[in-house]
Amino acid sequence: MGDYLLHQDIEQEAHADSCGMASAHDVPASLPLPPAPPSVTGGRPLLTRGEGHYLFLEDGQRITDGCGGAAVACIGHGRKDVAKAMAKQIDKFTYVSWAHFDNKATRDLADWLIKSTGGEMGKAYIMCSGSEVVEAALKLAREYFVWIGQTRRVHFITRDDSYHGTTIGSLSLSGHVSRRAPFEPLLMRQRHRISAFHPYRQRLAGESDAEFVGRKAEELEQQFLELGPDSVAAVVMEPVVGAALGCVPAVPGYFKSVQDICRKYGALLIFDEVMCGMGRTGTLHAWEQEGVVPDLQTLGKGLAGGYQPASALLVGKDISRLMESQGRTFTHGHTYQNHPVVAAAALKVQQIVQDEDLLTNVRTQGAYLQLQLREKLGSHPNVGDIRGRGLFWAVEFVRDRSTKEPFPAGMQIALRVQKLAQNPPYNVLLYQGQGCAGGGSGDHVMIMPAYNVDSRVIDEIVAGLSAAVEAFFSRVCQVQDEGDQRQDGLVL
Fold it and tell me: pTM for this one?
């Protein structure tokens, strides 16, 4: 195939006469491509209201929320029962310093979270953001080894093309090239990477699950041996990789092999479930589907569903028992840690998920979402992979389906598709990502609707996405066929 080019001349329209779009959309003969992103224009659409699965803009446009932001809005928008729970706590008191007082809202949430693990976790710290809680996990892992006299353990092993947060510590753990790049001189040198886990791009022809897992396990063990097994504090991984790779689950047996290696050499296993946890993949905790319990677990986005900024660090029973038996206190704290209104909101959201049996719906509608994505986009020449679990799905775009060649990073394909889908006539909000092919290249969009979604809304999301994909790539191919080879003016 020839070069794909997008530049100023073709930003004016995108023809879609023979794209096979969903009938839910009447596509005009001449369709403008999306405007420049906020980094160029300095502005974003003004949201005025959210209700259920829909967002409403200042100009009256209604957008179907297909991603909940970054997989945050897990019960949809505008739930009055959550607002009432928050107001009830506010009427009592709005803030208390965790260093001076305990509060019932935080106690109740912590107790609920511990019970939700079947007793596998023994302690919970309530915080306010994913980056914050990953930072806390890193520090607790280190302090645990200080407590038991293994002070040489200062190294952390993570994976390429991963993302664990935006603070210096959490970003140090991350393998997301573009997000790390401006800050590399500031980042920790005790973080060491192994390759990403990406079956679509890494599995060899004819390679079985067991063979693939064995090859990955050997790489991890070699990293332990190179660093010195007694110098590694923890291995940090997402059970289902989120934004960095786009909803990539592990194959059976992978995390069991990772845990076996950690135990062999005395390191901790930390699961970052900030994005994939709290029901997003069909079980409350993503590790439940892996048969592996981590030593530390981070939670975030779906914990309070966006009604408050909430996160939590769950501590495994072995570490928590040691803390209790030796009277150890974690040397850590934030001003808004154990915030009572945050805790009240998070507990109410989790009660709704439980009382309305939404985890069953995640599995049911997740299966339907998978079916619809594969039916509408599975044969598209620029769709390389459709992957995910529960209501956590991604579509990866490729330049050449047969070779899996990604588009050049500078074309920002996923961003353009996302922008186009958000605009009329598609009106669907997606989450875009770049870097899933490694080295900053590779484009994907993520579909992560609320847990109470139904098949009708799933149909809206998939129809809008598939129509936007057809319109976008048909215009790209048209320009290629017209033989326009100019390289000037790549405009978003």
Answer: 0.89
